[in-house]
Amino acid sequence: MAMVATSARDTGKTGTAKAWRPARSTIVSIVSVAVFFILWQVAPDLGWVNGRFTSQPSQVFLAAIEVLLNDDFFYHARISLTEFFLGFALALVVSIPLGVLLGTSQTARYLIDPPLMALYIAPTLVLLPILVVWLGIGMASKVAVVFLGALFPIVVNTMAGMREADPKLIRAARSFGASRLDVFVRILVPGSLPSILTGIRLAVGRAVLGVVVGELFVSQAGIGYQLNTYGSAMRIDRLLVYALVVSAFGYTLTVLVRALEGRVRTWRPE
Amino acid sequence: MMMDIFMRRQALILGTLSLVTIVVLWQLVVDFGIVNPFFISTPGAVWQEFLVQLNDGSLLTNILATLYSFALALGLAVAVGIGLGMLSGWFQDVEAALEPFIWFKYSAPTVAFYPLFIAWLGYGTPTIVAIAFLFALTPIYANTLSGIKNVDRDLKRAAISFGARPYDIFFRVALPGSVPVIVAGLRLGVGRALTGVVVAELFGANAGLGYSIAYYAQMLQTNRMMVPIVAVILLGVILTQALSYVEKKTDAWRVTHDN
Amino acid sequence: MAEIEIRNLGIDYRKPNSDELFAAVDNVNLSVGEGEFVSIVGSSGCGKSTLLLSVAGLVKITRGSITIGGKTVTGPGPDRAVVFQDASLLPWRTVLGNVRFGLEMQRWTGGDLTKQAMSMIKLVGLARFADYYPHQLSGGMRQRVNIARALAVDPEVLLMDEPFGALDAQTREIMGGELLRIWESDKKTALFVTHDIDEAIFLSDKIVVMGRNPGHVKEVITVDLPRPRTPEILDSERFTEFRRRLRAHLAADMAGMHFMEEAA
Ligand SMILES: Nc1ncnc2c1ncn2[C@@H]1O[C@H](COP(=O)(O)OP(=O)(O)O)[C@@H](O)[C@H]1O
Ligand SMILES: [Mg+2]
After folding, report:
1. Which B residues, 153 through 192, put their C-beta within 8 Å of a C-beta on chain C?
2. Is the ipTM, as predicted for this complex, more than 0.90?
3. pLDDT score of C256 more than 70
């Protein structure tokens, strides 16, 4: 984690073909993480904290192996992943066209702005219990929560991206005889892509949150279900394994979208 | 200018229109038997239920319970987030030492650790506050950090030319210059703190808006459930709008007129 | 007392994205007498700001030395004040707050801060605008604030880095006249960076022409036009003569620059 975090900032600082020499900040980050893990490992052994409540890195590591080998891990992961990707795909299909419409039509925007903003700002997760009432305790209610969580960030950012497009550029294109479709495909889409990706990145965070909250609230299977199980059983080591899996998933997706965002932004002339 | 007022009025009219339409449609689909009121209730029934919950005091109790946890969590997040953010913005080593943990916090959904907090703190306010605190911490910390760290170089140089010491640069240049960014972080933090409180209340509490939503959901009482849901949404909008207003105020000097 | 002596000055910077150093200015020798107004002109990037900021104590001297009134420069000091471009005003402070800022930083002990600041604000003609914020002022007014802030600490040397660089031609001319009026009231030693030839001639006793790669002094021209100067001298024959000489210098430098670029 430390490596990724600091190297992102360091890129471009050293361009020469010199021997690689870690930056001070990288060393500090590594030391800091190492100290954390060492403290976590020795604190229960030395009786500073009750190991029953904190577990230990070594235990978590062993638990991770157990979980992967025989804990129906892949079954639960598949359920959660399905909920996540179904909800997210639905959100993409609905939100981008909606954002485009709202970004290009002022009347539509004025009409929908107040409820849209309210739902963007307010915690959509409060709708979870009513979704459960509607859709039951199975996967459908989680798909719906993911959908709602992911929807609004993408709509709002797509909308913003459409409106960001440079009017001068549009006028110039029109003066060369570009049709509305041309303007849309050649100017609006590439112009708003970075903004849309920003929306998708924010949506990933909310969607992961949605799956976990949905499953923790009520479920029969999934990562959140396992979190609940091991929480009540006080199996902190296994609980942490599942929590770390979710974190790693969110982290990986976020980094991927961010990388894509970075590439798209560099295409765009400032 | 005229155009501006016209547009704003148009936005207001159309916006109100859409809200009214939603409420009317909601009532009509039930009245015409298209949707079973058990699922979505009706505006009329929700209004009745609102009056009931208002009169028996339960609505106010729940709002206050939620606001109490919210205030505690936000207060903690502000103290810790701004404190650590200032240290990290000023001392590169502090930033580097905290960075891996902050990155982890960014990507990890805090609620995944909810059962852990239950194990540590038990059901109730401490766990709710802890979850909401962690929800709100990240944007407040990150914005403070970037505000202090990206102190305007021209201003810093001007201060140094008059003999400013590091202490002066921090308190007279970096900190006042960061106020708008920090307030923007607070606005995000407010929304997240509220989400955190309500979500944690959904899972386990004995009062609060989230608790009452979950409670009525278990009873399958949609009418009653809608009242706290609407209350949470309104609370979120009001709190965020209030912070947006403060943000605009503190940001006033950023406006540059090229004349 | 406040004469500036620059001896064999060299300043190295790090090249972007590498550990290599290059000389931004080298072998600069320059004397500025007490109460003299000296301008530095030269093409963009030739090291004018670097030279000025080294006198201010804001960049590290690599070789040689700078002394002011016999004292060696090692950092910023209360004997000098810098007028920057307008981006250096604190946007959250009013005009009064900004002019007080320099005094506060210096722990000024010469009396009431607000009174001192107000008298400078009056001097630059902004008395009515004391509680305006920078964004409410025009570019010219912001530069008056910058000048007032520098004068408020009563420095012996006034250092100015293209203070009117962001202004339109007309405002610029007015500000030049204002600066002269203010300067003539107590004739502080002044070092003034500009790329405007007319401005340099109009204001200065001496003009330092700098060349590039690395920045060096090509020539020092003494401008012996009588003072106080009025806008009429802009049309005088002697003024035109100075203008021609300076143009020739700068044009030669531009040609050199072109050549360098092709070679690179
Ligand atoms: N802080 C710095 N670090 C590295 N190079 C610099 C720095 N400041 C200026 N330079 C470089 O030094 C040269 C002289 O810059 P400067 O003194 O600003 O020129 P001028 O003021 O005449 O335009 C330029 O090539 C510029 O890019
Ligand atoms: Mg310069």
Report:
1. 154-155, 157-164, 168, 172-173, 176-177, 179
2. no
3. no
